[in-house]
Structures are given as C-alpha cells and as structure tokens.
Amino acid sequence: MPESPSKPAVTDPDSLLNNLELLGYGPSFNSEVCEMLEACAMFNQMERNDIELIAEHFLAYVAEPDTMLLKEGHFDPFMCLLTQGKLAVNKEKGAYDTAPTRLATILPGRTIGEMSLIDGQPHSASVVTLTKSTLLVLTRDRLNALSRTYPKTANRLILKIAQLLSHRLRQTSGKLVDYL
C-alpha cells in the first residue's frame, strides 16, 4: 500500500518553515492543493491523476508580510510555489555594502527554492514576503517519499522542475548578453 505523508514535522529547528502558519495537509486538504497546483502554468499540461498524487506531498502555508522564506547561503531543502501574495528576491552585495539588491519580484504561479531542492546547495539569494502570502511547499523528504511511492509521477515533476530551471537559465543568459 502506498505510504501517505504524515503530519509534517520540521526536524531542523533552524528551518525557515518554522516561521510559517500551516494551512493544511493530507487527504482532507488535497482538493484545495490540487486547485492551487492546477492554477500554476508549471502544472497545466500534467494529468489530473499526477496532480492529485503530487498534491499529497505539498504542504500549504501562510506567511505574513516581511517573513524570510529563503536566506542566501542557508540550506533549507524545499521549494515553494507562490499561490497568493508577492515576494522579493534579494541578493546580498559585499562585505562593505549591507543593502541587498532586489533581483526580482515574484508573483503567484512562480516558484522559489527549486535549485536547492534539486542540487542540495545553499540558497543563492534571499526571499522575503512583501505581502501576506500563501505558499505550497515541497520538501526534499516529501519529494523522496513521492519518488519511492510513485516514481513515474515523481519523474514527471522533476522533469517539470528541470524545464523551469532550463528556461530561467536561458533568460538569464539572454540578459547577460545584453549587459556585455
């Protein structure tokens, strides 16, 4: 019988997930998570069955304004999908310049943290909420559980994440050429 994700526990006391309010998880909340996933372009070509299986592994959270979601240089192996609200992506400058540089503003339907989820490296930028925000979170542990239980669905999700990362790299390369 497939394993069902248990009530989420944050095992790392330093995890930034501790700063978020859990909205729901599990079978009783699965339909709401499915609706949130289906509203995101990343999932618009996935089969409903895959979305339902993936939704079982996402957790829904609410974050108040000015909540740090990702901290540059900190390792928290999770990815967030913003379903409501607005986020700021900031990059620290140098040792002498303490003001961070705003790299991007994230709007609903976009993800953050997927690089660290996949490559296991610390975050390359910090992300803070600009407004009250609703997020779907996929931790590495829950991705691994999806992979063990439904490997084909997990592979489809990982391929979507890889396509997203490839698209962002192409965009960044295009912008870099403009600066050269």
Describe it for me?
The radius of gyration is 16 Å and the shape is globular. It has one domain: Jelly Rolls (Sandwich). Strands 1-2-9-4-7 form a five-stranded antiparallel β-sheet. Strands 3-8-5-6 form a four-stranded antiparallel β-sheet, with no helix packed on it. The N and C termini lie far apart (56 Å). With 180 residues, it is an alpha+beta fold. The longest helix is centred in the C-terminal third of the chain and has 29 residues, at 151-179. The chain contains five helices and nine strands, in the order βααββββββαββαα. It has helices at residues 30-38, 48-55, 114-119, 140-149, 151-179; strands at 21-24, 59-63, 68-70, 78-84, 87-91, 101-106, 111-112, 126-129, 133-139.
